[in-house]
Amino acid sequence: MERCSRAVQAKDARFDGWFYVAVVTTGIYCRPSCPAVTPRPENMRFFPSAAAAQQAGFRACKRCRPDASPGSPEWNHRADVVARAMRLIADGVVDREGVPGLAARLGYSIRQIERQLNAELGAGPLALARAQRAQTARLLIETTALPMGDVAFAAGFASIRAFNDTVREVFALTPTQLRERAARGQTPAASGALSLRLPFRAPLCPDNLFGHLAATAVPGVEEWRDGAYRRTLRLPNGHGVVALRPFPDHVACTLTLTDLRDLTIAISRCRRLLDLDADPVAVDDLLRADAVLAPLVDKAAGRRVPHTVDPAEFAVRAVIGQQVSTAAARTHAARLVAAHGEPITDPDGGGLTHLFPSPDALAEADPSALAFPRARRSTLAALTAALAAGEIDLDVGSDWDEARARLAAVPGIGPWTVETIAMRALGDPDAFVPTDLGVRLAAARLGLPTTPAALIRRAARWRPWRAYAVQYLWATNDHAINRLPV
C-alpha cells in the first residue's frame, strides 16, 4: 500500500497498468500517473485491475483514461494459471467460448479459475472480460462513425441495454456523449478502418524490434512500407491488415478488419507482437548489473523481444529457417504462402496478398512438393500434423513446459528450434538459444564462454530475462535485424 501511494504521489508512469488508484471522495479510478491533483492518502484505494475498481463502483477518470494504460507485464512473463488466463481473456476467449471454454483450455474447473482470479485480481473472468469490452466499445465510439448498435455487437455485448449500462457505469457518460466529446476536431474513420495509439512503458528501442520484423518479413504476408511494418492477420471472425509505425511515445496502429468483432483480439495480438506490455526498467536494471552487458544496455536501453501474432505460423517458419540464411528462409516461406496461403486484397494497394497458411492447410499439402531437403520436409509435415490435430498447443494460454516437451518430441526439432519458438511464439522471457550462431559470435566478441553448456551457466545471472539478453547480444552483430529500415 505504501509503495502504491508513493508511486501515485510521484505520478510515476512506470506503474501504469500494474495497479489502479481509486478516490473515495470523487468515485473515480485513475492510473498512477494521472496529472490531476494528488488525492490525500486516506482517500485512496488500490486495485489490481480496472475490473476490480469497476466492480467496487468506481468509474474511469476522463482525464487519464486508466482503461487505456499499458497492460500489466505480469501476464506476459509469468507461466502460472492466472497469467495464462489473463492472456486468454485478452485474446477474447471468454467472449467467444465463455468461462467454461476458458476453464477447459486451462485444464481447471470453473470454480478454481474464478477463485484464483478473484484472489489475485479482485475480479472474476466475466468482470475482466466486461472491462475489456468497455474499452473496445470506447475505441469504436470515439474513432468510428458506426451506429451504436453495431458498436455494441462488435465490442462483444449481448444486448444494446448491456452496452448502454456498461458504458454509463464505467465512463459516467452515455455512448452518445462519449462520441460527442471525442468528435471535437476529429474525423471518424470509415467502417472497418481504425487508427489508434498503442501505449508502452518507456524506454523502447525500435531498432531491433522493427528491424527484426522487417528483415525477416515473408513477402505477401509482411512488408515494410512508408516507415511502417505491415502484415496480414488471421482472426477468429475474418482477417485483417495492420500497419504499425513507431513514435517516441507510442506505436501508431492502423487496422483494417473484415469483421469489427475482432478488434480487441487484433489489438491484443499487435501489442503482444511488439512486446509493448514489458517492463523495460526491470529488465534493463537486472541486465545492467552484469558488467559485460551494461555498455550494451546503456547504448540502446529498452530493447524488446519481437514476438508473433500467430504462434503456429512462427513455429512453421522456425522449422523452415533451420540452418539457412534469413534470405533463404524468407524465400522458402514465400513459396509456401503462394502455394497454400489464403489470398486477400490489400486495402491500401500494397504488397500484402495472402494470409499465412493455416496448420490444417499445410497438413493437407504434399510434402514432396516442398523445395526442402527430405528431412526438413518430414519435420515440417510432422509439426503441421501435430498442430492441426491439437497435439501441440502454442496458444497464448498454453503451458510453456508442456509445449517445449511436445515440440522436442517431433523428429528434426532440436533445442535451437524449441527455444526460438519459446522465445518468439510462446513469449517466454527466459527462453535462451546458446547454440544460435549470432549469440555465439557475440559471446566471443564480449569475452563470454562460447560453448553452450558454459554459456548457459554464465547466463544464469540474466534470469528471468535471458530472452532480452539475447536481443542485446544480437545487437553486437552488423545485421539488418538490428536497425530500422530506411
TrEMBL record:
GO molecular function, one term: zinc ion binding
Cofactor: Zn(2+)
HTH araC/xylS-type domain sequence ranges: 83-181
A GO cellular component annotation in the UniProt record: cytoplasm
Keywords from the UniProt entry: Activator, DNA damage, DNA repair, DNA-binding, Metal-binding, Methyltransferase, Transcription, Transcription regulation, Transferase, Zinc
Gene3D superfamilies: DNA Methylphosphotriester Repair Domain, DNA-3-methyladenine glycosylase AlkA, N-terminal domain, Helix-hairpin-Helix base-excision DNA repair enzymes (C-terminal), Homeodomain-like, Hypothetical protein, domain 2
Cross-referenced SUPFAM superfamilies: Ada DNA repair protein, N-terminal domain (N-Ada 10), DNA-glycosylase, Homeodomain-like, TATA-box binding protein-like
Reaction catalyzed: Hydrolysis of alkylated DNA, releasing 3-methyladenine, 3-methylguanine, 7-methylguanine and 7-methyladenine
PROSITE patterns associated with the record: HTH_ARAC_FAMILY_1, HTH_ARAC_FAMILY_2
Pfam family, one: Ada_Zn_binding
Listed EC numbers: 3.2.2.21
InterPro entries, per database record: Ada-like_dom_sf, Ada_DNA_repair_Zn-bd, AlkA_N, AlkA_N_sf, Alkylbase_DNA_Glycosylase/TA, DNA_glycosylase, HhH-GPD_domain, HhH_base_excis_C
Residues spanning the membrane: none
Protein name as annotated: DNA-3-methyladenine glycosylase II
Organism classification: Bacteria, Bacillati, Actinomycetota, Actinomycetes, Streptosporangiales
